[in-house]
Specification:
Length: 1466
């Protein structure tokens, strides 16, 4: 006998007493059933008979009784038991028969089977309708006899030693029959008393103990019945809780026995199953049926009667029935049972119970237990996680809404997020187990000290069980916490070598515990506070789990932490930024390598995606906190860092990590998130450098205070002390930010070069400055766009959006002139990208491909508008014109290949890639010719076209001033209207005659309306250029000139028409070609008549005398100047100079490009159509509604009323509004009615409320956007200016005052137009005081209220919500802002630069939100097949007006009309 085992076991039991559950400390457990119990022995065992004789007795007695089984009417040969004595005697025989051994002979099996069938039949006495074979005494006393039957049925479950597998299967069949019968009776019976319930429960516990307590032996009866007996035990236990709650002794018995079965996997499986079912029912009662819909198996498993406090007690007690599940990772504790001790004593090959082979499965059992606890945590958090083997699915990770998120049509189901258990409550319930499980590797490697001192329980505890109520992280590197049963002090592990094989086996369970903890802490709500003790323990275990043990292998613990910690830096956890060094170390290992070794159970793409979400959530922190030091967690063993790490020194590592991850990443969605993070980082850095006005350079030992150091920012780690870090990698001494380059950082981190494994040139740009980051981004994005990303739609769109956004950022900083080479390179890349995409083979051409080409044209236009000098560069201009030609015609005239001739324009066939591509190329061409270099105009960016209309031109003309005394007439009636260029241009011509009073020459004003806008040109008739013209005098009579006194002598001479030498020239034949009048000719009648007429005229003239002529001269003695000509037909002259007037061009059905068609402007609807044409913009346009939602608001009226008093809002919200655009005049749209009864009660005196909207407008050369802030109030909200975003000088500059009044009028007109213009894409920006409110905001009601005010109905509420794109903004306590994006399901993902879950700074918030809204509108338009570009819609409208009002005049009538002024008043 191995006596040493007894000594070790007793010692272990003494040490483990502190872990004993104190719930039933004052109660004793029941004694166990066993085969030697005297009360259960049959009287036949006392007879001196042989076993064969006893078997014969059993057969003879049981067979007549078994004949009545299963029949309606008893057989005459069947036994009739009418008295208690008869029944008692038969039961003695049947009880002995149940203990008979099983033999191979089939005849030996019959009596045992009959005994089982008889007892199963007799148990129906407890049912409402007993079977016919039940004896009468059992019907009278069903509980009494049922208890005896239950005690004797135990014999069938006793293992028969040395039995063959076939006999074990036979015994299992009989056991299953008994278990089914017991389940049926318990479920359907209503007369079971307390003693019978106790007998049933004791029977089941004893059966389980007999079968499961011994060490596992493969394929024995216990192995076969393990799952079945455990499931029956737990299910019947639930029924007992519902009908007759077990006593504390019974609960203690179950707890003691269950802890001896923990080496069985089935115990944990059934424990998880029953716990999840009870938890689902409990959550349904606590939070309603919509919180977490239970599965069908869970509904069947838990009785309907189990509810209320009984349900709570049953749930909590069953949860703790197996003790501390973390002990499953300690074989020495699991093997401390009598069965294991007995096996070790009799075994010659085993010296320690913990070395039994069946304990090798403890790692898997530990994993199952941790999965079960994690499933319970998920259930309390409102996440669905099934632990049933046939329903097990992958748990949804908290990595944010990656990609796109759909709106729920009904917000009723969103209560699961708002009303759930607090994080502190979950940590009280499961925190002790989870924290202990996460540090399971520390117990063997490092010293685990246990103190027997008990701590007082907190008032927050659910039971008297000790919780983690006091934790302190000290300089002595120790973590003091209260374990579930004792106070323990765990020394933190230093950076040491590899973990042993034993601990590696429990790594999966540790990873599950870490993931559950991360989900708990990441689910923290806005108004929730977590105890600092729990936060400190959490940071310690995360710091320990993120340690890098092998740079080529990702541990399951690290993977689990990152997979479930995407929201770690988004939920306002106090002191969370102390984890940044450890997190960055882990992110570098995961994101910088392609060939990491990882467990197959971990999805590599999802791991990288979760890591990227963590990365984008900390990008804004270094610039926000800047010079603040990062508080370090306590380190156990290791040297103290000489220099603490500050936030500004972390930024180069993050920048380098972001660029390197972007170069390595191959997943499109991950690349999309990285591109959005990169755009946000660039803009934040640009805004930071602009606000600082100098380069950031910090001394290593100097930490000056900055203006951004707010109260919340100074509290970076409130629950930990300023101690050293446990990671040596996070304490590297970085050089100054302004001097850091990628190469210098690589030299400082020697391990980095080993981690990075991707191919490609390393970036060598100084990432510490804005210019270095921009140059690195240009090179990386351009190379990847042409080489890899061109095949994916969303990635290409994100890259193009990044490039377009950089154009705006660089233009705002005015650094383009310093970086001309990079700007040229971007334009060259864009042109090459368009060429490559257009030249792809026809099978590759699709809607997605054409969408990328259209987006590239738009990006190219953005660069030209932002940097007009590119249009003056010959190389860039040549490339741009080539791709424009390619888009319009489908090919290039100059391909650049040797030997190919240049193809002339008239020789080419127009075969564009698609109509959308052609339209985009036309827009780029028009922008290049008309607007690049001229945008914004003097009137601001509100309109790329002229804002003057007919009325404005007439008011400024001579006609208005000269005809001021005439009655007012319509200004448009003074214009002539023509359609030119095949009906694509409408010309409005206003003739202004010269006016000597106004000192004006004849002028013609041309109002041109085409597909790209409205332009006005004025032309004046002049004989000389203005700079050569002298001073004009327009006096009425200049008077006679004075005579000249110095007149010389007058010489008389005879006038000669020809010189004298003419007579001396010899005549030639040419002189005779013109005959004289005297020459005889062939004269016909017509010529004769003309000659006669000419003769009479000569005769009459010769009769005038000299005196008559002198009289005429004396009558008109003075010379007078002729009258000025005021009728010049300037319209005719101007149109003729342009080539529009020709007889051929005015012929009917002429298709020439210079054809001119007159329009009938006398129609009453003509000017209405012109006005509707003017309201169609030539740029893409979007409208975004902005709302402010206070914490807990769910009513649309309350939300819309928030803006009525702007002073009560968050001042940062008002600053954010100022950054969105340029304020415009408030508009009162309509009367709005409250949407709910609650809102009516708020103001019962008013039946309607005035909807007032404050508008913020922003535009560039490509797009324009309007931010509308609606408010149900009679006063418009007032906005304050931002300290960073000053009011735009573009609208307030002196040169813009020229047309400011007209611009505002025009803007107001455009706001009142139809809803099709305003709501091309439904977009909303919602500022939430509480982040959790984003699930309950009534988007549909808000849109319905706004639509009703604008009389825009017709679309269902659900359709409106599902088609809406929303940007949620939540202000964190740190001063940063969390972004959440929601949008409809579509092939096109959400746009950048903002991505779901990103955290941005205050200085960049407004610009990023605006650009995201603009890009989202572009993407949605690309995704719609029926969408037409704005200039195409204008083109169609122009053609419609030209054809509708065409005037059918012949050529003479047309010309005669040109010579006449338009009839005023006609």
């Amino acid at each position: 006998m191995n006596l040493g085992v007894l000594n070790r076991m007793n010692s272990n039991q003494k040490e483990d007493k502190i872990y004993q559950d104190k719930m039933y400390v004052d109660w004793s457990s029941f004694s166990f059933f066993n085969q030697s119990n005297i009360e259960n022995r049959s009287v036949l065992t006392s007879l001196p008979l042989s076993p064969d004789a006893l078997k014969q007795i059993v057969t003879l007695v049981v067979q007549p009784i078994a004949t009545n089984i299963g029949i309606t009417h008893p057989s005459p040969l069947s036994a009739k038991l009418n008295t208690d004595r008869e029944v008692a005697w038969c039961m003695e025989v049947i009880g002995y028969g149940l203990s008979l051994p099983l033999n191979i002979a089939t005849t030996e099996h019959d009596p045992i089977r009959d005994c089982v069938h008889v007892y199963c039949e007799w148990l129906s006495a407890l049912l409402p309708q007993p079977r016919s074979a039940v004896p009468l005494p059992l019907l009278k006393l069903p509980n009494h006899y049922s208890r005896k039957i239950i005690c004797q049925l135990f014999q069938i479950f006793i293992p028969r030693p040395g039995e063959a597998p076939d006999l074990i299967n036979r015994q299992a069949v009989l056991c299953h029959r008994v278990l089914r019968t017991i389940q049926s009776v318990v479920t359907n019976s209503s007369i079971i008393d307390q003693d019978t319930w106790d007998s049933l429960l004791l029977l089941l516990m004893t059966i389980n103990d007999v079968l499961l307590a011994p060490p596992t032996v493969p394929n024995d009866i216990g192995d076969q019945l393990c799952d079945r007996v455990l499931s029956v035990l737990f299910e019947i236990w639930l029924h007992a809780c519902a009908k007759s709650f077990p006593s504390p002794r019974m609960w203690k018995t179950l707890t003691e026995l269950a802890q001896s079965w923990r080496h069985r996997t089935s115990l944990i499986t059934q424990w998880n199953r029953i716990n999840l079912a009870l938890t689902s029912r409990l959550l349904t009662e606590l939070y309603g049926p919509q919180f977490l819909k239970p599965a069908d198996d869970e509904q069947i498993l838990v009785p309907v009667e189990l509810s209320g406090k009984v349900l709570t007690q049953a749930w909590y007690r069953l949860l703790h029935c197996i003790g501390n599940p973390v002990q499953l990772a300690r074989p020495s504790i699991i093997s401390q049972t009598h069965k294991f001790l007995q096996y070790t004593i009799i075994s010659s090959q085993l010296s320690d119970p913990s070395q039994h082979p069946c304990l090798f499965s403890l790692p898997n059992i530990f994993v199952e237990a941790m999965k079960g606890i994690a499933g319970l945590v998920d259930a309390f958090l409102g996440l669905r996680s099934s632990v049933f083997p046939h329903e097990r699915t992958e748990r949804r990770t908290h990595s944010g809404s990656i990609g796109r998120t759909s709106f729920p049509v009904d917000n009723a189901g969103s209560t699961s997020i708002l009303h759930r258990a607090r994080c502190n409550s979950l940590l009280h319930l499961f925190g002790s187990w989870l924290f202990e499980a996460t540090l399971i590797d520390c117990e063997t490697q490092f010293n685990l000290k246990t103190s027997t001192a008990e701590t007082s329980s907190s008032s927050l505890h659910l039971t008297d069980r000790s919780r983690a109520s006091s934790v302190s992280v000290t300089s002595e590197s120790s973590l003091q916490s209260n374990r579930p049963r004792s106070a323990t002090v765990v020394e933190l592990p230093p950076d040491t070598a590899n973990v042993g094989a034993t601990l590696d086996g429990y790594e999966s369970g540790r990873a599950e515990a870490l993931g559950a903890l991360c989900r708990i802490f990441c689910s923290k709500s806005t108004d929730e506070d977590i105890l600092p003790q729990y936060l400190a323990r959490f940071y310690v275990v995360l710091n320990n789990g993120l340690k890098i043990k092998d740079e080529k292998f990702i541990s399951e613990a690290m993977a689990s932490i990152l997979l479930h910690s995407a929201d770690l830096f988004r939920v306002n956890l106090d002191g969370v930024f102390t984890l940044i060094p450890s997190v960055i170390d882990s992110l570098e290992v995961i994101l910088l390598s392609k060939d990491l070794k990882i467990k197959p159970s971990v999805n590599r793409v999802e791991l990288r995606r979760a890591s990227i979400h963590v990365l984008v959530s900390i990008l804004a922190a270094p610039l926000h906190f800047h010079s603040l030091p990062i508080k370090e967690l306590a380190g156990g063993i290791g040297e103290r860092n000489t220099l603490p790490t500050i936030f500004s020194n972390v930024r180069p590592r993050l920048t380098q990590l972001l660029l390197s991850a972007l170069q390595v990443e191959s997943d499109p969605l991950n690349t999309h998130i990285l591109l959005g993070g990169l755009a946000s980082l660039i803009h934040d850095l640009a805004a930071f450098e602009q606000s600082e006005h100098n380069a950031v350079s910090l001394a290593p030992h100097n930490y000056p205070s900055t203006p951004m150091q707010t109260d919340s920012a100074s509290n970076v780690m409130s629950s930990t002390s300023d101690t050293h870090s446990c990671h040596s990698t996070s304490s590297n001494s970085y050089p100054s930010v302004s001097e850091i380059t990628l190469d210098s950082h690589l030299e400082n981190d020697a391990s980095y070069s080993e981690r990075i494994s991707y191919s490609g040139p390393l970036l060598t740009f100084p990432l510490g400055s804005f210019h270095g980051l921009v140059n690195a981004t240009f090179h990386l994005v351009s190379c990847k766009l042409l080489a890899v990303w061109k095949a994916d739609l969303n990635t290409s769109l994100a890259a193009l959006e990044l490039l377009g956004f950089l154009a705006e950022v660089l233009a705002k900083l005015r650094v383009s002139d310093q970086n001309v080479g990079e700007s040229r390179r971007i334009v060259r890349v864009l042109c090459e990208y368009i060429s490559v995409q257009c030249s792809r083979p026809p099978p590759a051409h699709s809607k997605d491909l054409h969408s990328t080409i259209v987006a590239a044209y738009t990006c190219c236009a953005s660069w030209l508008f932002a940097h007009p000098f590119l249009a003056t560069d010959s190389e860039c201009l040549h490339l741009i014109l080539q791709v424009i030609e390619l888009g319009i015609s489908g090919s290039k005239s100059q391909t650049g290949k040797n030997g190919e001739s240049i193809q002339a324009k008239h020789e080419k066939l127009l075969k564009p890639v698609s109509l959308r591509v052609r339209d985009a190329a036309e827009f780029l061409l028009t922008s290049l010719i008309e607007q690049v270099g001229n945008f914004p105009s003097l009137t601001g960016p509100g309109s790329p076209s002229c804002i003057l209309n007919e009325e404005d031109l007439f008011n400024k003309s001579n006609l208005m001033k000269s005809n001021s005394n005439k009655p007012h007439l319509s200004a448009a009636q003074h214009f002539r209207y023509f359609a030119a260029s095949e009906g694509t241009i409408i010309l409005g011509v206003l003739e202004q005659p010269s006016n000597k009073i106004l000192d004006s020459d004849p002028m013609v004003t041309i109002l041109i309306r085409n597909q790209f806008g409205r332009q006005v040109w004025a032309s004046q008739i002049r004989h000389l250029p203005r700079h050569k013209c002298g001073v004009y005098s327009y006096t009425v009579n200049p008077g006679r000139p004075l005579p000249m006194n110095d007149v010389g002598s007058l010489l008389s001479f005879d006038p000669q028409y020809f010189p004298d030498s003419v007579d001396r020239v010899r005549p030639c034949l040419a002189d005779k070609t013109l005959p004289s009048l005297e020459t005889p000719l062939m004269i016909d009648d017509r010529i004769a008549a003309e000659l006669d007429k000419l003769g009479r005229l000569v005769d009459s003239a010769s009769t005038l005398t000299v005196s008559e002529i002198q009289e005429d001269i004396e009558i008109k003695s003075e010379c007078q100047s002729p009258l000025l000509c005021n009728e010049f037909q300037t319209a005719r002259l101007f149109l003729s100079h342009l080539g529009f007037l020709s007889v051929d061009g005015l012929q009917e059905n002429s298709l020439r490009g210079n054809s001119l068609v007159g329009l009938d402007s006398t129609s009453s609807h003509f000017f209405e159509d012109l006005d509707s044409l003017d309201r169609l913009g030539s740029r893409s346009h979007d409208t975004v509604y902005v709302f402010y939602v206070r914490s807990g608001q769910k009513d649309s009226y309350e939300i819309l009323s928030n803006m009525s008093l702007a002073s009560s809002l968050n001042p940062h919200f008002l600053e954010f509004l100022q950054a969105l655009g340029w304020p415009q005049d408030s508009l009162t749209t309509a009367q709005a009615k409250p949407m709910s009864k609650e809102s009516m009660d708020l103001n019962s005196k008013a039946n309607a409320y005035q909807m007032t909207s404050q508008c913020l407008y922003w535009a560039d050369g490509v797009s324009e956007i309007l931010f509308v802030v609606p408010a149900l109030s009679c006063t418009s909200p007032s906005f304050i200016s931002s300290p960073f975003h000053e009011p735009s000088s573009l609208n307030d500059s002196p040169q813009n005052q020229l047309g400011k009044e007209q611009k505002n009028i025009n803007f107001s007109k455009r706001l009142t137009k139809d809803s099709a213009y305003i709501s091309e894409v439904r977009m909303l920006v919602v500022w939430c005081e509480s982040y959790e409110d984003h699930t309950t905001i009534p988007i549909g009601d808000l849109l319905e209220t706004i639509s009703s005010c604008r009389d825009n109905g017709g679309q269902q509420k659900a359709d409106v919500v599902s088609d809406c794109f929303v940007i949620f903004i939540h202000a964190q306590q740190s001063g940063l802002y969390r972004i959440h994006l929601q949008g409809p399901n579509s092939k096109v993902n959400l746009a950048t630069p903002l991505v779901d879950g990103i955290v941005v700074s205050r200085r960049a918030l407004g610009s990023l939100v605006r650009q995201t809204a603009v890009n989202m509108g572009k993407r949605r338009r690309l995704d719609h097949d029926s969408y037409q570009l704005p200039h195409i819609r204008r083109k169609l409208k122009v053609s419609e007006i030209a054809s509708k009002y065409r005037s059918d005049m012949d050529v003479p009538s047309f010309y005669s009309n040109l010579f006449c002024n338009p009839e005023v008043g006609s």
